[in-house]
Amino acid sequence: MRFRSHQEAARAQTCRLLMLFALVVVGLVLAINGVLAAIYWLTFPFARGLPTWFVETNTALVLLFVLGGCWVESMRLAKGGPHVAELAGARPVNTGGNDEASRREKRFANIVQEMALASGLRPPPAAWVLPRDDAINALAAGWDADDAVVAVTRGALERLDRAELQGVVAHEFSHILNGDTRLNMRLVGLVWGLQMIWGLGQQMWSADEHGRRHAGALFGLGLMAVGSFGWLAGRLLQAAVSRQREFLADASAVKFTRQVDGLGGA
User: Fold this and answer.
1) Which of 38, 50, 261, 264 is most buried, judged by most C-beta within 10 A?
2) Is 172 a residue of the active site?
3) Sequence-distant (≥ 6) Cβ neighbours of residue 170 within 8 angstroms
4) 187-213, pLDDT tens digit by residue?
5) Choosing from 73, 100, 172, 209, which is the catalytic residue?
6) Above 60 in pLDDT, residue 141?
């Protein structure tokens, strides 16, 4: 079937993009060592070779910032899907009332249970609502199925029919099943680490309160130059990976719902 070819193509493209992301980090290590070595020789033209542990220190610095950024971001979101949903302004569904809003939320909760059966995701993710958002939107959050949350906006509940809402929910289920929520948080951390290298360079380049720059200012300028290119490349790859995962989620939604009209209408 056509959606299966879309799934396979999206997965293959994501793997290639993740490999490129790793190459960006390797290239950043090489570039920083090359640029800082060139600055060192310009600053000390009569030096014989590089200082002891020069390359090792620079390499450890880059990996510390990039991998450390990923770790810090993971710790910040360690509480899982409910914490992320709360940060976005969501709350658990209210299915106990008899008003129209409660009936819509109960319909959404039922659809979540249906998609859990169709996709085989156990336990089913918690159903949450963004009550202050009138736009049509949805999100999935969580490290794995145990702490996963699927949230939709009030606008989606009010303006989508059942088939359309089912397509949107199935799309978000794919993000959980394929590990997209975990992957996105890792990528955010990696990009943040790349940005931190630029920030370190900016601090080294900045003048003091008397307008004077210290001896390591040129090294800071080199870090800023290489770090900015690394950060830009990381952001572009992050966006490309996210786009491929959206294609994969669309194809998976068709698989779970057995129809294209609902997701297409949404």
Assistant:
1) 50
2) yes
3) 115, 118, 119, 252, 253, 256, 257, 263
4) 777 788 788 888 888 888 887 777 777
5) 172
6) yes
Amino acid (1-letter code) at residue 141: A
